[in-house]
């Protein structure tokens, strides 16, 4: 029996031990006794209160099979082929068949079109172009072209997730469109991740739509990704997550130390597109660590830190690195959740450098400095994330926490999602000082729940669950009635 509306009437024997859902729910009252137990060294502290500890979402059979298909040799071949175009500078030749950004563009389009041919019509590929008038780092009118492969979802196709790598490159002088700029790590590595995932996903059915994009103009000022984001916005798509893969090619730092099992994920706190009204609300209730991008990052760690990827995702609580910015910022500016994957420690001798040898040291972003096993694992992190997002219900919408009266209970309300296979919802909560969600309470297929736990003391969120156990990212509630 499904109930999408209704009001609960709490029944409690002791405060903080029971949850009450809408009266028509199959489980209107759920007991959740607690007992504080000391944590041992290295163990996460689980706060006392309703619910049970959150556990990660393990990869299912389909996802595990998909991740096994990610091919290290194909990834290396892609990086080396892109580097072989000499330079892929945005201002380089667009019609030379062997050198320059035009040759790279045409090769990427050909490869993605080949993958789409195996999709049964679900994947389409386009050259998305516009002419950028003179602007920062663009001295003359210049055609900017993104190569975009779209895998249309079968159930909720208007819900979209985007993954990008930028295929343009640069030398030491950002305006030098002539010198060799192989751009192996920055960012043939990211393009290789995008292309390999497009290949392995093209033959699979997804519920939501995934956009795989090799964008141009990143080194000049994020021009290609800004155009892509604006085109999606104009089309009215519901973009619920975006990831830029930028400099994901090496596990070796400039001092020679290696960290081959970690990838950084930059995720902003205060939203780039936050309005004055939204800022006022955030200041009054907290939430600096609960932006949609932070919820997306938590989802990544939930589904992509496991034996199938062999990786640890190190979430960095900032929008990007110092002095740098990547294509996820274009999506943040449109108000969408987004993050940037990048390698754990960088070697700046192999980024934004002319190819040369100085005092016996090789400079330049050359393919021999990439770690192809590492890029393959990064691709699996992205694959686990995209597949889990596209197969799960969407992030709940219109989630509110009722603040019309003073009470030590907490009432949450939300809008039921459109997915036909939704099994129900879960409320998650954590101490305000905790970085990750700590407890979860299944509440059934309802749109309102009252919990005997004070909203003044903890943070709450809501996520959807389908019949196969796929869980959405968490939605952080806004104050309401």
From TrEMBL:
PROSITE patterns: FN3 (PS50853), TAT (PS51318). It comes from the Bacteria. The keyword tRNA-binding does not apply. Keywords: Carbohydrate metabolism, Glycosidase, Hydrolase, Metalloprotease, Polysaccharide degradation, Protease, Secreted, Signal. Residues 1-41 form the signal peptide. Residues 270-293 are annotated as: Disordered. GO terms for cellular component: extracellular region. Residues 274-293 have a biased composition (Polar residues). The keyword Secreted applies. SUPFAM superfamilies: Fibronectin type III, Zn-dependent exopeptidases. Its main location: secreted. One of its GO terms (molecular function) is metalloexopeptidase activity. Residues 392-481 form the Fibronectin type-III domain. GO terms for biological process: polysaccharide catabolic process; proteolysis. This is Peptidase family M28. It is found in: Secreted. InterPro entries: FN3_dom (IPR003961), FN3_sf (IPR036116), Ig-like_fold (IPR013783), M28_fam (IPR045175), Peptidase_M28 (IPR007484), TAT_signal (IPR006311).
């Amino acid at each position: 029996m499904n109930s999408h509306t209704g009001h609960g009437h709490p029944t409690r024997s002791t405060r903080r031990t029971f949850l009450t859902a809408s009266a028509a729910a199959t489980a209107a009252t759920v007991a959740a006794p607690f007992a504080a137990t000391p944590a041992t060294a290295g163990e996460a502290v689980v706060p006392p209160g309703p619910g049970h500890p959150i556990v990660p979402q393990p990869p299912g059979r389909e996802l595990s099979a998909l991740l096994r298909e990610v091919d290290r040799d194909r990834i290396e071949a892609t990086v080396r082929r892109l580097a072989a175009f000499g330079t892929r500078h945005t201002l380089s030749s667009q019609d030379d068949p062997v050198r320059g950004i035009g040759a790279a563009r045409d090769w990427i389009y050909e490869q993605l079109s080949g993958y789409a041919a195996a999709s049964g019509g679900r994947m389409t590929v386009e050259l998305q172009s516009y002419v950028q008038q003179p602007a920062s780092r663009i001295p003359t009118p210049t055609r900017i072209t993104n190569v975009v492969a779209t895998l249309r979802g079968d159930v909720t196709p208007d819900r979209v997730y985007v993954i990008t790598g930028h295929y343009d490159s640069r030398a030491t002088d950002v305006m030098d469109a002539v010198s060799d700029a192989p751009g192996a790590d920055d960012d043939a590595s990211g393009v290789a991740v995008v292309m390999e995932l497009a290949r392995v996903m093209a033959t699979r059915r997804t519920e939501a739509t995934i956009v795989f994009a090799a964008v141009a103009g990143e080194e000049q000022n994020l021009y290609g990704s800004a155009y892509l984001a604006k085109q999606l916005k104009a089309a009215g798509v519901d973009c619920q997550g975006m990831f830029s893969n930028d400099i994901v090619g090496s596990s070796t730092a400039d001092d020679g130390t290696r960290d081959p099992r970690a990838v950084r994920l930059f995720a902003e706190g205060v939203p780039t597109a936050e309005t004055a009204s939204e800022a006022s609300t955030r200041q009054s209730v907290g939430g600096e660590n609960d932006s949609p991008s932070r919820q997306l990052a938590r989802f990544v760690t939930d589904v992509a830190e496991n034996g199938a990827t062999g990786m640890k995702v190190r979430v960095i609580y900032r929008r990007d690195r110092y002095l740098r910015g990547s294509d996820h910022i274009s999506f943040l500016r449109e108000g969408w959740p987004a993050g940037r994957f990048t390698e754990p420690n960088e070697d700046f001798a192999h980024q934004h450098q002319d190819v040369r040898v100085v005092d016996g040291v090789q400079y330049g972003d050359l393919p021999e400095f990439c770690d192809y096993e590492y890029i393959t694992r990064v691709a699996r992190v992205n694959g686990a994330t995209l597949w889990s997002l596209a197969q799960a219900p969407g992030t709940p919408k219109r989630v509110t926490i009722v603040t019309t009266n003073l009470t030590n209970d907490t009432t949450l309300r939300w809008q039921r999602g459109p997915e036909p296979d939704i099994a129900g919802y879960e409320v998650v909560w954590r101490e305000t000082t905790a970085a990750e969600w700590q407890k979860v309470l299944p509440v059934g297929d309802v749109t309102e729940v009252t919990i005997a736990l004070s909203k003044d003391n903890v943070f709450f969120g809501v996520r959807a669950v389908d019949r196969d156990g796929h869980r959405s990212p968490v939605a952080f509630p806004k104050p309401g009635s």
